[in-house]
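Box 3.1 — From sequence to structure: ABC transporter permease
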Amino acid sequence: MRFILRRLGFFLLTLWAALTLNFFIPRIMPGDPVDALTVRTRGRVSRGALEQMLTSFGFKPDQNVAVQYADYLGHMFTGNWGRSIGQTLGEPVTRLIGDALPWTLGLVGVTTVLAFLLGTLIGTVAGWRRGGALDAILPPVFVVTSALPYFWVGLLLILVFSQGTGGALPANFNYDTSIVPGFSPGFVGSVLSHAVLPAATLLITTIGGWILTMRNNMITTLAEDYVRMARAKGLNPRRIMYAYGARNAILPNLAGFAMSLGFVISGAILIEYVFNYPGVGYLLYNAVQNVDYPLMQALFMLFTVAVLVALLAVDIATVWLDPRARAA
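Predicted structure (token representation):
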């Protein structure tokens, strides 16, 4: 119980520090929203009118910083995240995030979990059969795939499966805009077909890390005395592999998986940009491009909370899986 309370204290302290940085970092970036809007309106609107318009959207450039900080913390915790002052001028930030978040969770979230599960399973078998044919092939192959940039793999898949095959798989947006959105077979099929290439890009570039890490952890774990004792007792090899080997070898991977789950909310920005996929990552890119403070702050806050919640959940799972952590 003390372990969980310590982690909750760490969670709250880290959240406060992240929210504080989240407030100040956009304000020390070069440029400001007024200048960005001046360029966008080509100088047809006066600076005073733009400042007044931004104030009506919740951005108050002339207000005292301490007052802005206090208002900001209150708004972050109450969900009053203001209105966009960027490309989607005047739109509520909550609506923009609500529209983009399901697409990121569906694409990046499912693919991340799939990569972890497949990578852990393959890495477990490769470590158990160390020195075999599978173990000889996997490390060099996945060392290469893990180093490939997201955008390069995405562009290659577009070249081969979208342009090179006469458009067999779509490579733009999240569904065919000629189809009315709904739970119809045509719309669902369009969404799935548009997700194939970005999901494959993410899977190819991430699964190798899980495979190699789990393989190495498995090899180290199988050298422990308790595994040798289990073998000496004549236990079933499958039970030794999963209950004694994999259960302990997966523990170091859980923290990394928690981080990856947290970053699911941020989306794979490069992947969503290459495929013009309207997820949260692409939304963040547009917010930065347009110096959209309210949208940037809400997104950064969301990313921070997602990572911290995932880490807290993994800490609890570690206590459940590893009895040694309960005594800490």
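Summary of the box: Residues 19 and 301 are 6 Å apart (CA to CA).
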